């Protein structure tokens, strides 16, 4: 996990708010886990997928053996 994702997960106030996460690993397994955890599988390229997952389910996904790496970044562009 990258630093920003670790910081977010260290917070005691994780909610059902969905965040975008980059996940590296087995794509078919990631699709299944994402659906089981109440998230949305957006797209993938090679072995990297982009998901929308509730904050309080990130740790659960990270514990899966097929997950190699995870990253999340807060958008800095204000619209």
Cα radius of gyration in angstroms: 12 Å
Report low-confidence residues grouped into runs of 5 or more.
none
The rounded distance between the terminal residues' Cα atoms is 28 Å
SS class: alpha+beta
How many strands, which pairing sense, and closed or not: the largest β-sheet?
4 strands, antiparallel
Mean pLDDT: 87
Q: What would the principal axes of the Cα set say about the shape?
A: globular
Quaternary organisation: single chain
DSSP helical segment count: 3
Q: What's the helix-strand series? A: HEHEEHE
| Portion in beta strands | 25-35%
- Please give the share of residues in helix: 25-40%
Widest sheet, order of strands: 2-3-1-4
β-strand number: 4
How is this structure best described in words?
The protein has helices at 3-10, 27-36, 58-62, and strands at 18-25, 40-45, 48-54, 67-71. With 79 residues, it is α+β, with helices and mostly antiparallel strands. The chain has a four-stranded antiparallel beta sheet with strand order 2-3-1-4. The radius of gyration is 12 Å and the shape is globular. The N and C termini lie far apart (28 Å).
């Amino acid at each position: 996990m990258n630093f920003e994702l670790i910081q977010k997960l260290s917070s005691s106030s994780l909610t059902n708010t969905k965040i975008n996460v980059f996940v590296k690993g087995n794509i078919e397994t990631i699709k299944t886990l994402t659906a089981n955890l109440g998230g949305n599988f957006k797209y993938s390229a090679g072995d990297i997928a982009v998901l929308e997952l509730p904050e309080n389910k990130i740790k659960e996904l990270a514990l899966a053996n097929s997950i190699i790496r995870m990253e999340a970044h807060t958008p800095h562009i204000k619209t």
